[in-house]
Amino acid sequence: MNKLSPQEEKELLTFIKDWLKLHGYSQKDLATELNISSSRTKEILNKIREIYKKGGMFNVAKNLINIEQNWLNNEVKTQAKILKDAPYSQLDINYQVGIDELINQMEKDHKNK
Q1: SS3 for 37?
Q2: Is 88 helix (H, G, I), strand (E, B) or coil?
């Protein structure tokens, strides 16, 4: 594949920085996903160049999409664990079920009057 032009590199880095901000992640998080030891912009750009050489912009996009999917999946798992481990979550569920039953019974009693 051809190399990225300086303008394309600049635009891609701007996109990546905005993308990271949007998802609340840092360059360090991205470096971890890219399996590189440094989170410096230069090192991230070197890795992006390497990915680009292996398949062009399509390959860059595919890698970024996979990273985003990993992050989203991890967020879902984290939220599920938080809900599961919440000390009062079972009580809250039981409380809500009890209220629903009470309301149903009150409506039933009111109709029977």
Answers
A1: coil
A2: coil
Domain boundaries, the chain: 6-86
Q: What is the pLDDT of residues 4-30, one digit of tens each?
A: 999 999 999 999 999 999 989 999 999
- Tell me which H or E stretch contains 51: helix 41-53
Task: Encode pLDDT of 48-67 as tens digits.
Answer: 999 999 999 999 999 999 99
Which pTM was predicted? 0.66
Question: Which of 59-64's residues contact partners 24+ apart within 8 Å by CB, and which partners?
Answer: 60/12, 63/34, 64/16, 64/19
Tokens of 27: 């360059």
SS3 87: coil
**CA nearest to 52, candidates 13, 91, 98, 100:** 13
Dihedral of CA atoms 32, 35, 40, 43 in degrees, nearest 10, equals: -160
Tokens of 1: 């594949």
